[in-house]
Amino acid sequence: MNSGQFTLHLVRHAQSANNAKPESQRIADPPLTDLGVEQARALASVIGQLSPDHLFSSPFLRTLQTTAPVAQALGILPTVRADLYEQGGCYRGHRIDDRTPEPGMRRSEIQSLHPTWQIDPAIDESGWNKHETYETLQEARKRAQRVAKWLAEHPWPDGARVLLVIHADFKIRLLESLLSNLTVDVQLGSVINTAWTSLSYQAGRWQLDEFNSHPHLEPQMITS
Fold first, then answer.
1. Nearest residue to 124 (alpha-carbon basis) of 106, 109, 112, 111
2. Alpha-carbon distance 55 to 43, whole Å?
3. CA-to-CA distance for 29 and 17, rounded, in angstroms?
4. DSSP secondary-structure letter at 52?
5. pLDDT at position 181, please?
6. Exposed / middle / buried, residue 25 (Cβ in 10 Å: 0-12, 13-18, 19+)
7. pLDDT grade, residue 23 (50/70/90)?
8. Strands 161-166 and 118-119
9. In the chain, helix, strand, coil percent, each to 5?
10. Residue 72, burial from CB neighbour count under 10 angstroms (0-12, 13-18, 19+)
């Protein structure tokens, strides 16, 4: 376990085209909507108050598009981690019994968009999604536990501030792993697009400091 103290911020991506459509019209890897682009820019305008010095993004297009203005505002290079994707993985089909995995963006596709970013070696030319079937809730929880283990064991500098740009359901799974005494989806409610949740880590323990904070969003910009 990391013996130091650091802060973790979990940010949900801005509104994607799938967020704005009925489930039957959703696609495997949608971009941001026009409102989502506004949300991401608004997030970038205030992100300095969190002062993150480590920035990570899920490999989905919507998280990459949310991360880009944040990275520019902070002046730091993000890392794209393969294991931060949304619960279920990348798939087509809206019925639970008819969801077919898609590979997700290839390494070269991500590099063409962001040539200076660090990209997880697990993301190759076959894409980042290695599931042969739709990821189950149990599998997502195990993945969240692995990410939680990485966060706790990585040798962050003392006082580090780590920001992950992720997704609503996986954010809940990760909070369940970090705060094992908390029934997150019952006690905390919906996850707002571009809102951040902050936790502090010290002496092997996590503490929830803030949930769903979104001071950068005007009322008409709030979506979940």
1. 106
2. 14
3. 9
4. -
5. 60
6. exposed
7. confident
8. unpaired
9. 35, 20, 45
10. exposed
Structure tokens at 77: 């290079």
The H-assigned helical ranges of the chain are: 34-46, 61-74, 107-113, 137-153, 168-178, 184-187
* C-alpha to C-alpha distance for 130 and 100, rounded to whole angstroms: 12
CA torsion sign for 18, 46, 185, 151 is: positive
Verdict on whether the full-model pTM lies above 0.90 = yes
- Alpha-carbon dihedral sign for residues 136, 144, 94, 187: positive
Quickly tell me which residue has 């739709």 as its tokens: 134
From 35-39, 51-55, 72-76, 188-192, the region with the lowest mean pLDDT: 188-192
Query: What is the residue type of 221?
Result: M
Output the pLDDT for position 185. 47
Angstrom distance (rounded) from CA 11 to CA 73: 15
- Residues facing residue 164 across a β-bridge: 10, 56
**All domains in the chain, ordered by first residue:** 5-221 (3.40.50.1240)
At 95 the pLDDT is 78
Task: Tell me the C-alpha distance between 122 and 66, whole Å.
Answer: 22
CB 77 within 8 A of CB 116: yes
Query: How far apart, in whole angstroms, are the C-alpha atoms of residue 121 and residue 90?
Result: 18
